[in-house]
């Protein structure tokens, strides 16, 4: 029987924290690394001193684990080219040493327009951006290690994250501003262009269900459909309904100003690189996931939006995060 012990790297982040909470709820022993914060057990997670950039720290924390969730990124999009791949190499080394599976949250950054509009797991990865090329190299290294028989890999790819704890997202940094009730919504896309969203608790549930299966191969990749917005109006409509303001104004994201500020603000530079993903419909094909699980975890959109707004401090009330089957 699989040892239900997981090391979650980046557990203070949106998706990683949600995966950690989900695994704890399923009876897993969950560990996380902290460079300077409080140690000991909090919310069922065992926090140990360590740095995801330090390979010996990762290997020590991974002892006895059957799963390593690699969801750690440099803060504020800084030093991606210098830090991301060494962190992954440390995870691969730890997984090799303890015999664990690596779980990686995938992104659509890996793909260019030649893969649009509907992307399957076997689609060619020809990214347009620097960050996309790094993500492709991450997956190449994971695949190579899996093919060599060194580790097992699970990649779950989804659209733009949103959720109660996903402040570092288009939802929490563009559509609304975390910490205050919205007086205006800011939408990055164009009218009539579809966009794919992913509610973080649903993503975490999907990852956990897959991670507990014993019929996965050495390298597996699955795509989620999440919350598909066919014309850019579905998410805006849900926000207006949940806020009780059907006439809440919507403005366009000032892409030009972001591009001009990019050399001085790394976040703006990185976000501006992703503009192409808002200019035409981009949708991940989840048929392989549905075939394996029999369905995809899916929370009704209004419930997901309400929980997200409450969690981000944009709306008062209980964050009802119940997930539909």
Automatic annotation (TrEMBL):
InterPro entries: Epimerase_deHydtase (IPR001509), NAD(P)-bd_dom_sf (IPR036291), NAD(P)-dependent_oxidoreduct (IPR051783). Residues 6-215 form the NAD-dependent epimerase/dehydratase domain. GO terms for molecular function: aldehyde dehydrogenase (NAD+) activity. GO terms for cellular component: cytoplasm. This is NAD-dependent epimerase/dehydratase domain-containing protein. The lineage of its organism: Bacteria, Pseudomonadati, Pseudomonadota, Alphaproteobacteria, Hyphomicrobiales.
């Amino acid at each position: 029987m699989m040892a239900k012990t997981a090391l979650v790297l980046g557990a203070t982040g949106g998706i990683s924290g949600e995966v950690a909470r989900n695994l704890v709820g399923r009876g897993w022993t969950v560990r996380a690394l902290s460079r300077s914060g409080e140690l000991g057990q909090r919310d069922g997670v065992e926090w140990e001193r360590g740095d995801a950039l330090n390979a010996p720290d990762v290997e020590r924390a991974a002892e006895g684990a059957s799963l390593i969730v690699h969801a750690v990124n440099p803060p504020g999009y800084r030093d991606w080219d210098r830090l991301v791949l060494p962190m992954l190499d440390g995870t691969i080394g730890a997984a090799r040493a303890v015999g664990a599976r690596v779980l990686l949250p995938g992104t659509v950054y890996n793909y260019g327009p030649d893969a649009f509009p509907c992307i399957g797991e076997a689609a060619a990865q020809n990214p347009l951006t620097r960050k996309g090329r790094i993500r492709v190299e991450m997956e190449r290294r994971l695949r190579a290690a899996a093919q060599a028989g060194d580790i097992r890999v699970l990649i779950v790819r989804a659209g733009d994250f949103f959720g109660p704890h996903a402040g570092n997202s288009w939802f929490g940094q563009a559509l609304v501003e975390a910490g205050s009730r919205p007086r205006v919504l800011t939408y990055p896309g164009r009218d009539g262009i579809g966009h794919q969203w992913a509610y973080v608790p649903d993503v975490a549930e999907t990852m956990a269900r897959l991670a507990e299966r014993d019929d996965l191969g050495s390298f597996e990749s699955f795509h989620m459909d999440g919350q598909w917005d066919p014309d850019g109006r579905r998410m805006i409509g849900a926000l207006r309904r949940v806020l009780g303001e059907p006439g809440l104004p919507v403005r366009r994201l000032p892409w030009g100003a972001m591009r001009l500020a990019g050399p001085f603000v790394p976040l703006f530079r990185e976000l501006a690189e992703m503009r192409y993903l808002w200019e035409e419909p981009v949708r991940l094909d989840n048929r392989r996931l549905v075939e394996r699980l029999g369905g995809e975890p899916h929370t009704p959109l209004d419930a997901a939006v309400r929980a997200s707004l409450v969690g981000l401090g944009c709306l008062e009330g209980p964050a009802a995060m119940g997930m539909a089957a």
